[in-house]
Amino acid sequence: MASKKRKIEEVEDADESPPKKKTLKVDDHKSMEANGVAHVEIDEGLYSRQLYVLGHDAMRQMATCNVLISGVGGLGVEVAKNVILSGVRSVTLHDQDVCAYSDLSSQFYLAESDIGKNRAQACARKLAELNDYVQTSFYDGPLTIEYLKKFQVVVLTCSTQEEQLRVSDLAHASGIALIVADTKGLFGQIFCDFGENFKVVDQTGENPVSAMIASISQDTEGIVTCIDDSRHGLEDGDYVTFSEVQGMEELNGCPPRKIKVLGPYTLSIGDTTKYSKYIRGGVISQVKMPKILNFLPMRKSLLSPEYLITDFAKMDNLATTHLAFATLHHYKAKKQCLPKPWNE
What we know:
By secondary structure, this protein is of the alpha+beta class.
């Protein structure tokens, strides 16, 4: 199939009275890399909820991110909808399949009039209307390494395992974040490879905890005791800093210190023998420390998968589900189709 790529642009309706909604026009795609982003302005009115959760730094990073979503079936269009609404720089919809009647059961941006059309091209217009700030385009060519290097994030849905492994190898070697997602009936599968030395700024997403201080000992272990009605809520290995301490002022605004939890009201912060004697008051506050993660490429993860457990009552099901998806990929590669229901 010949490669096509188009840019979705907005133009005003010619009829000025009465005013109408904006319509969409498909025009030739121009390279987004030519438009450098020196400073990204965030529409705080549009993204107010996201800003509260993610913060300005994360939103600015998202606003410079180019995302490729391959496979615009039911799952792919849901991913595309949410990514476009989130406010990334650009989203490219990729698909080499044409719309069939079966797509209409879950792809909510396709209609009977789209039967026989390329799925990415058919729904690109409606998806582009979701967010004027996001450049939305479609592409129906092969995913070559030269093409993939244009993106910071690649999402694969509706892809064969051979395609997943090929793209995974290319993405891992090029430092491109890869997400592979699939659904089959009531079962779903997701694989993430964010490369090596991936920095996680906040491991939990929870607000940092703090507690009022009752006393701080002056010894090699430096035991901090919180007031009786204020559990500190910290865990071994957490980092903390201090404020409003009277007497042991050296701790106020100190660099993050690693702690060892001794109980719900006590913890150790290390050597405090050289500090002034504690008098009264103070607040101990948790400091979120970044963590570096190293992800394995898909080829290695398939041989030794590490499961993310969310329901401990179904721990034994994870390996079976993983095997079932692998078997379906093997069946489709051999038969060129998926088995029908109740096919032994």
